[in-house]
Amino acid sequence: MAIKKQFLKNKPVCKVTFTVPSENAYNVAVVGSFNDWNAASTPLKKLKNGSFKGTVNLETGNSYEFRYLVDGKFVNEAEADAFAWNDYAGAENCVIKL
After folding, report:
1. Which of 20, 51, 71, 77 has the fewest C-beta atoms lying within 10 Å of its C-beta?
2. Residue 51 region, left (φ>0) first, then alpha (ψ -120 to 50), else beta?
3. Percentage helix, strand, coil, to 5, in the chain?
4. CA 51 to chain centre
5. How far apart are alpha carbons 49 and 81 in whole angstroms?
6. Which CATH number goes with the domain that contains 37?
7. pLDDT of residue 22
8. pLDDT of residue 38
9. Which domain holds residue 17?
10. What is the sign, positive or negative, of the torsion defined by CA atoms of 79, 81, 82, 83?
């Protein structure tokens, strides 16, 4: 898994690209505080190499919690900037700091 950050010079926005290698998966989405944890908001597109990829524009100067939803199961990003415990989920969420 990977996260790529591209900060824009003329706007307080960062283009964040999420990549999830998951050849056997059918549906992958990134859910988090930036999209109200809505799986339909940010589906990732399956590439020919079997990985899933998608880009989200996020406001800089903030931190966002997120997780991947792979065929209905939550998966964490190993390369996240940090992790935060979530009592509601009973698990850690990934954190991206911009």
Report:
1. 71
2. beta
3. 0, 55, 45
4. 14
5. 26
6. 2.60.40.10
7. 87
8. 96
9. 2-97
10. negative
The rounded Cα 30 to chain-centroid distance in angstroms is 4
Scanning the structure block, which residue is given the tokens 């009592």?
Answer: 87
- pLDDT tens for the chain, 98 residues: list them: 899 999 999 999 999 999 999 889 999 999 999 999 999 999 999 999 999 999 999 999 999 999 999 999 999 999 999 999 999 888 999 999 99
Q: Which positions ≥6 away from 53 have C-beta within 8 Å?
A: 17, 18, 19, 20, 44, 45, 47
What does the chain come to in residues? 98
Domain count, the chain: 1
* pTM tops 0.85, yes or no: yes
Judge whether 31 and 58 are in contact, CB under 8 Å: no
